[in-house]
Amino acid sequence: MSRSRFETWFAKLAVSVTILFGLALSAPDGISAQVSQQESTAQEHSGPVASSGVMRTLRGRHLLLVTDLPSSPDVDGLPKIFDQAISQWGTYFHVKPDTFANWKIRGYLMRNDQRFREQGFLPDDLPPFLHGYQRADALWVREQPSVYYQRHLLLHEGTHAFMRFALGGTGADWYMEGVAEHLATHRFRDGRLELQAFPQSREEVPHWGRIKLIRDAMAAGQARSLTDALQLGGHDFRRVDAYAWAWAAIVFLESNPRYALRFGDLQNQVSLPPAQFTARLWQSLQADRRQIQDAWEVFLAQLDYGYEPTADAIDYRPVKSFAETTRISIKTDRGWQSTGLQLSGGQVYRVRAHGRYQLVSGDEVWWSEAGGVSLEYQDGMPLGQLIGAFSAEIPAERPVGQASFSSPIPVGVDCELRPQRDAVLFLRINEPAGRRKDNQGSLLVQIEEVVDPTN
Predict the structure, then answer these.
(1) Can you give the pTM of this predicted structure?
(2) In this predicted model, which residue has the larger pLDDT, 250 or 436?
(3) Cβ burial, residue 89 (10 Å; 0-12/13-18/19+)
(4) CA–CA separation, 239 and 86 (whole Å)
(5) Three-class secondary structure of residue 376 per DSSP
(6) Conformational region of residue 346, where left means phi above 0, alpha means psi within -120 to 50, and beta covers everything else
């Protein structure tokens, strides 16, 4: 090679090295200038990342999280927690692991919105949102007052993104938001994440508040019917209470053995228009329209921390009009049980109960009869007391809270009942659903008509 050619070649090499070195120095903090194909498959994921001294970039296998929150184990561990959620989403939605093995999403955890706008991370065309939002391959979450609720919102928005990616749709708004709430309600212990974990106490889920919102509405006579809950959409979700009712509807439908399979089939319908999606569900439930309203009222009346909805299904029997004195057995480890008797409105009936059974309270075993035990009270009545409820053949749209499943009748050892209208009598012992399963024994109940001597 001639000297002049060598000098020319060397000069070009020097320029190239300078350019490459300059690019390396200008690469954003916390992420290399080049991102491999495995680390980024979506345009949102391979876009710019934090370049401000306040902003940090945290990376997991599936989530690249940009945040302006200071470093802490709770914040810095979020990408790995998100990674644990992926396989659980896959199991819930019946998606094969190889489908989401290389799925990536970018997230923004924000304390100061303006910082993210200045960096181009918070687009002006996003609609107003309360705490979180998800679009395409990106999600946004605002800083929350508790570590739990911050994780909850990240998992909630992540559920939306996973559904869109893996299922190709999210169904009607009540379903999309309700399922996201259900899955994001989680437990995190010893570094392990458990999705769709029903809260055992208020302290376990600080600032979540869904159960409180529903119980407050019940107390104020403003409870929603199941039909109302399945009509939530659009602007309704600018209020937090809409998320509570959507969550309740999902938990109810999924946990009740009578409706769980039909509800589960909705995962195959998420590409339908919202109205058609909801109509498809109601069509599948049409034969149980009256019973599902009974079950919804039982669910709402018992809903509390530590509730086990699967243990509170109603036992139905074929119904016949009352004709003669009847004896039936009531199991003490079950929820509401139909007597199979339709009593006449205005007529007086005498109900007498016989038998002893065991109530388990922690390590203690309490013996009880139909009158209950005065050592503990539940809903203002002795624990273990026999209680009753009427269910009448009335339209499925009856107002929630006015049926007697929501206001049980104390029955005890001996009681006279007068239904206001023709109705079927249901019985159970007074104890939370989650505590009944350890009970042993049953009651023999006799129901007889009281004859008015003046007639």
Answers:
(1) 0.82
(2) 250
(3) buried
(4) 28
(5) strand
(6) left
The beta-carbon contacts of 258-265 under 8 Å, at least 24 apart in sequence, are 258/288, 258/291, 258/292, 258/295, 258/313, 259/285, 259/288, 259/292, 259/295
Contact 270, 327 (CB under 8 A): no
252-271 pLDDT per residue, tens: 999 999 999 999 999 999 99
Residue 267: Cβ-neighbour burial (10 angstroms; 0-12, 13-18, 19+):
middle
SS3 category, 126 = coil
Cβ atoms of 226 and 292 within 8 Å: the answer is yes
Q: What type of residue sits at position 445?
A: V
- pLDDT of 287 reads 80
CA 397 to chain centre: 24
- Give dist(CA 344, CA 320) in Å, integer: 11
CA atoms of 296 and 209, how far apart (whole Å) = 20
Structure tokens at 246: 């959507």
Using alpha carbons, select from 280, 233, 222, 290 the residue that is nearest to residue 258. 290
Tell me the angle at which helices 173-184 and 147-166 cross, rounded to the nearest 10 degrees.
130
- Quote the tokens at residue 301: 């009346």
Task: Please answer whether residues 395 and 424 qualify as being in contact, where contact means their C-beta atoms are separated by less than 8 angstroms.
Answer: no
Q: Are 278 and 174 in contact (CB under 8 A)?
A: yes
Mean pLDDT, all residues of the chain: 86
Pairwise CA distance, residues 352 & 172, whole Å: 48
